[in-house]
Amino acid sequence: MVKQAKTKHLNELARRRLLIVELALRCHSTKHGSPPKQLGELMPEYLARIPLDPFTERDLSYLPNHTNWLLYSVGEDRVGDRGNPRSDLRVDIP
Known about the structure:
Layout: H1 2-32, E1 52-53, E2 58-59, E3 61-65, E4 68-73, E5 89-90
Antiparallel strand pairs: 1-2, 3-4, 4-5
């Protein structure tokens, strides 16, 4: 039961962190016409610091792709599957 509660907490924390970074990415893209090459470019204008993936305590996974990007947390299996929604956590905002 404790493990389930910890996993649920980490999932919610990851979702919040992904949402924060997603919003910063959208602001950057709107102003500059393209996403940043790396998340560090969001500081300090949009973020004071880059939130970490709560499952790894490393940077969230970010892959820019022309005018779009893929942002995700590795999820509870702690293995990045390039944003595969079956195992990784993503925030999909249209």
